[in-house]
Amino acid sequence: GFYIVLDSSTLAEVYRAKTSQQGFVQEAKFSADGGLLAVACSDSSVFLYDAQDNYLERGVCKAGGAALPHLDFSDDGKYFQVGTSRHELLYFSSTTCKRLKTGTAQLKDAIWHSFTSVYGWPVQAVWNRLPPGLHVHSLDRTRDMTSLLACGDNAGNVRLGRYPAVEGDTMFNVFKGHSSVVASCRWLVKDSHLIT
């Protein structure tokens, strides 16, 4: 797939490149400081680029044959997590592109710049009380890291609840807004609106 970086104030093209030869781009994120760009592709590759050095490729991380619809950087930019189509949550080093085999334990206290993975300790309650056949497909936490969580499912529902959502009895307000799968949901920069 291809990716294009635009200047946010003018929408002028800053950079354009091809990533994977066989996969399409599923997710792209900048680190909190804007120094790294990670581009996740459907062929299970995550391409890391140095945004401060003309998007020089720093490495390619392999996630083992699964599509990668969710990607988040740690707040310090040293690590990133990917949620896979195989229902896994994998962790990688941003400096070495190596997978952290003990990432769950190693990063249990990490602060995440964003949280869009449908898997993980702070979002485990989104799976509670789902009727059979219902699956969470998209998720986003507000930028203030302590307020709201939004998730979308394959029945077209958008659910809003408190973050973190770790208790079994976490309550969600459910809104019907789509006729099918809610493929993505994202809060705007200042958390004023949710786009699905």
Give the low-confidence spans: none
Q: Distance between termini?
A: 23 Å
Sheet of most strands: 4 strands, antiparallel
Helix residue percentage:
under 10%
Structural class call reads mainly beta
Summed up, the helix count is: 1
Bulk shape: globular
Order of helices and strands: EEEEEEEEEHEEEEEE
Gyration radius, in Å = 17 Å
Q: What's the pLDDT, averaged over the residues? A: 93
Strand percentage: 35-45%
| Total count of strands | 15
Question: Within the largest sheet, what's the order of strands?
Answer: 3-4-5-6
Index terms:
single chain; 196 residues; mainly beta; four-stranded antiparallel beta sheet
Give a quick precis of the structure.
This protein is mainly β and 196 residues long.
